[in-house]
Protein backbone atom coordinates (compact mmCIF):
# COMPACT_ATOMS: atom_id res chain seq x y z
CA UNK A 1 0.00 0.00 0.00
CA UNK A 2 1.24 3.43 -0.77
CA UNK A 3 1.56 5.95 1.99
CA UNK A 4 1.74 9.69 1.71
CA UNK A 5 5.43 9.97 2.64
CA UNK A 6 5.10 13.47 4.09
CA UNK A 7 2.14 12.34 6.19
CA UNK A 8 4.00 9.25 7.42
CA UNK A 9 6.95 11.44 8.54
CA UNK A 10 4.78 13.39 10.97
CA UNK A 11 5.76 12.33 14.54
CA UNK A 12 2.06 12.21 15.43
CA UNK A 13 1.26 9.82 12.57
CA UNK A 14 -0.51 6.60 13.58
CA UNK A 15 -1.45 3.73 11.27
CA UNK A 16 -2.56 0.12 11.14
CA UNK A 17 -2.76 -2.07 8.07
CA UNK A 18 -5.77 -4.38 7.66
CA UNK A 19 -5.55 -7.45 5.44
CA UNK A 20 -8.14 -10.05 4.54
CA UNK A 21 -7.20 -13.42 6.04
CA UNK A 22 -10.31 -15.28 4.92
CA UNK A 23 -14.04 -14.87 4.46
CA UNK A 24 -15.18 -12.26 7.01
CA UNK A 25 -11.78 -12.59 8.76
CA UNK A 26 -9.30 -9.72 8.89
CA UNK A 27 -5.98 -8.96 10.56
CA UNK A 28 -4.80 -5.54 11.74
CA UNK A 29 -1.04 -5.03 12.00
CA UNK A 30 0.76 -2.07 13.54
CA UNK A 31 4.23 -0.71 12.77
CA UNK A 32 5.78 -3.07 15.36
CA UNK A 33 4.24 -6.14 13.73
CA UNK A 34 1.70 -6.69 16.52
CA UNK A 35 -1.55 -8.16 15.20
CA UNK A 36 -5.21 -8.45 16.10
CA UNK A 37 -7.66 -10.67 14.22
CA UNK A 38 -11.28 -9.57 13.90
CA UNK A 39 -14.31 -9.93 11.67
CA UNK A 40 -17.58 -11.79 11.77
CA UNK A 41 -17.76 -15.30 13.09
CA UNK A 42 -17.01 -17.45 16.08
CA UNK A 43 -14.23 -16.17 18.31
CA UNK A 44 -13.88 -12.78 16.64
CA UNK A 45 -14.89 -9.31 17.69
CA UNK A 46 -16.67 -7.27 15.02
CA UNK A 47 -15.34 -3.86 13.94
CA UNK A 48 -18.08 -2.14 15.97
CA UNK A 49 -17.13 -4.17 19.04
CA UNK A 50 -13.49 -3.19 18.45
CA UNK A 51 -14.52 0.46 18.41
CA UNK A 52 -16.30 0.02 21.74
CA UNK A 53 -13.30 -1.91 23.11
CA UNK A 54 -10.94 0.84 21.94
CA UNK A 55 -12.97 3.47 23.79
CA UNK A 56 -13.11 1.39 26.98
CA UNK A 57 -9.49 0.32 26.62
CA UNK A 58 -8.16 3.83 26.17
CA UNK A 59 -9.93 5.11 29.30
CA UNK A 60 -9.03 1.93 31.19
CA UNK A 61 -5.34 2.59 30.60
CA UNK A 62 -5.76 6.22 31.71
CA UNK A 63 -7.33 5.14 35.02
CA UNK A 64 -5.26 2.00 35.63
CA UNK A 65 -1.80 3.46 35.05
CA UNK A 66 -2.27 6.06 37.79
CA UNK A 67 -4.30 4.09 40.34
CA UNK A 68 -2.22 0.92 40.18
CA UNK A 69 0.81 2.92 41.32
CA UNK A 70 -0.99 3.12 44.66
CA UNK A 71 -2.71 -0.26 44.81
CA UNK A 72 -3.64 -3.25 42.66
CA UNK A 73 -7.39 -3.31 41.97
CA UNK A 74 -9.53 -6.17 43.22
CA UNK A 75 -11.96 -5.51 40.37
CA UNK A 76 -11.34 -3.61 37.16
CA UNK A 77 -14.12 -3.88 34.59
CA UNK A 78 -15.23 -1.33 32.04
CA UNK A 79 -18.38 -1.74 29.96
CA UNK A 80 -18.58 0.25 26.75
CA UNK A 81 -21.95 0.23 24.99
CA UNK A 82 -23.86 2.14 22.37
CA UNK A 83 -27.11 2.17 20.44
CA UNK A 84 -26.98 1.31 16.73
CA UNK A 85 -28.74 4.03 14.76
CA UNK A 86 -30.08 3.61 11.22
CA UNK A 87 -30.72 6.91 9.47
CA UNK A 88 -32.22 5.96 6.09
CA UNK A 89 -29.65 3.21 5.60
CA UNK A 90 -26.67 5.15 6.99
CA UNK A 91 -25.70 3.36 10.20
CA UNK A 92 -23.73 4.61 13.18
CA UNK A 93 -23.52 4.28 16.95
CA UNK A 94 -25.02 6.84 19.26
CA UNK A 95 -25.45 7.29 22.99
CA UNK A 96 -22.13 5.61 23.78
CA UNK A 97 -21.68 4.96 27.48
CA UNK A 98 -18.53 3.88 29.32
CA UNK A 99 -19.21 2.45 32.78
CA UNK A 100 -16.39 1.71 35.24
CA UNK A 101 -16.53 -0.91 38.00
CA UNK A 102 -13.20 -0.43 39.76
CA UNK A 103 -12.63 -1.52 43.37
CA UNK A 104 -9.51 -1.48 45.48
CA UNK A 105 -8.65 -3.16 48.80
CA UNK A 106 -9.98 -1.55 51.97
CA UNK A 107 -6.53 -0.50 53.18
CA UNK A 108 -4.87 2.94 53.16
CA UNK A 109 -3.34 2.59 49.67
CA UNK A 110 -6.52 1.07 48.26
CA UNK A 111 -8.60 3.92 49.63
CA UNK A 112 -6.21 6.47 48.08
CA UNK A 113 -6.48 4.70 44.71
CA UNK A 114 -10.28 4.45 45.00
CA UNK A 115 -10.45 8.17 45.76
CA UNK A 116 -8.69 8.94 42.46
CA UNK A 117 -11.04 7.01 40.17
CA UNK A 118 -13.75 9.67 39.59
CA UNK A 119 -11.19 12.38 38.79
CA UNK A 120 -9.25 10.09 36.43
CA UNK A 121 -12.41 9.04 34.57
CA UNK A 122 -13.27 12.71 34.10
CA UNK A 123 -9.73 13.54 32.91
CA UNK A 124 -9.82 10.64 30.48
CA UNK A 125 -13.15 11.79 29.03
CA UNK A 126 -12.23 15.47 28.83
CA UNK A 127 -8.54 15.34 27.92
CA UNK A 128 -6.55 12.11 27.84
CA UNK A 129 -8.44 9.44 25.87
CA UNK A 130 -7.68 10.01 22.19
CA UNK A 131 -10.19 7.37 21.10
CA UNK A 132 -13.29 8.64 22.89
CA UNK A 133 -12.44 12.27 22.16
CA UNK A 134 -12.03 11.49 18.46
CA UNK A 135 -15.42 9.74 18.38
CA UNK A 136 -17.13 12.43 20.43
CA UNK A 137 -15.68 15.42 18.58
CA UNK A 138 -15.51 13.83 15.16
CA UNK A 139 -12.63 13.55 12.77
CA UNK A 140 -12.43 13.75 9.02
CA UNK A 141 -12.29 10.29 7.44
CA UNK A 142 -11.20 10.10 3.82
CA UNK A 143 -11.56 6.87 1.82
CA UNK A 144 -9.08 6.38 -1.04
CA UNK A 145 -9.21 3.69 -3.75
CA UNK A 146 -5.56 3.17 -4.65
CA UNK A 147 -6.52 1.26 -7.80
CA UNK A 148 -8.89 3.83 -9.26
UniProtKB/TrEMBL annotation:
Which Gene3D superfamilies does this one have?
A: 3.30.300.20
A single Pfam family it belongs to is OsmC
Instruction: Please give the superkingdom of this protein's source.
Output: Bacteria
* The protein, known as: OsmC family protein
